[in-house]
Queue: 2 jobs
Job 1
Amino acid sequence: MRRFVITATAAALATATVAIAGGHGGNPAVKARNAHMGLYSFNLGMLGDMAKGTTEYDAAAASTAASQLAALAAFDQSAYWEEGTIQGEVDGSRAKAEIWSDAAGWAAKQELMKTASASLAEVAGNGLEALQGGVAGVGEACGACHKAYRGPRN
């Protein structure tokens, strides 16, 4: 089941990327990475709502959303981050120049997200407390990257 979820998520993301890239206007790389971040947000939103008690904990749904997060984090995003797609230079971008000037730091933040989301996927279906701990780790990984490499909303 887990392999199916990961494969289905990757296929859906690839399809969305192609569809977005072929859309009207805007930079295709920026559109693709915004779609990717939207999928992160969608899955993490479900998990966060369960972790906060806003929605009832559902082990199967938590496992699925966490597996999807892990698949997204493992997805090769290199084509999304074209040089010259810095906030203020391209519509829709919130990427700071530090993504390109601090490549090692950027890569470390991506690895942190891969590790945290894989850890969450391992425990999300094991009860609310396990989910809460895993979601906290993913939240820290997201925040670390956003603080360093994402600009404010325009």
Job 2
Amino acid sequence: MKCRGFTLIELLAVIVILAIIFLISAPIILNTVNKSKEEAEQESARSYVAVIKEKITKAMVEYPELKPNNTLNVEVNGTDDTSLKSWDCSNCGTTNKIEFNYKGPMPNKVNLTWSEGEITGYLKYPSNCFYIDESGNIKKITKSSENEAKKFCEI
């Protein structure tokens, strides 16, 4: 009587082949996930800055003392999606705050400055940290970035 089935060696060979396939594909999949997370956070940072620019531009109509060359610094109250954010115009002689709500992924830490119509500064998200330059470009801060950026991002 002959039994039909797989031998132990055949089963072990299949398991080894599957393990090799997993070891090859796992880093590729994890790299794809990390890259998409970074791209999503970068797009969120772009959206966050766009909302701030729009709100400040509208506020300039309401508050004539706000000028494009005033320096405004961000104040963040909390880090959840519904928290209230505001800009305090420190050198335009007003105590008014420009309030706005932003719904979307929130940065954990914000250090932005509005000066001469442009926003520059840093945004820290759970996985990545970004720098916004004078041209509005958003760049990821890495270990090779300048000291100020590394200090802000705690790298």
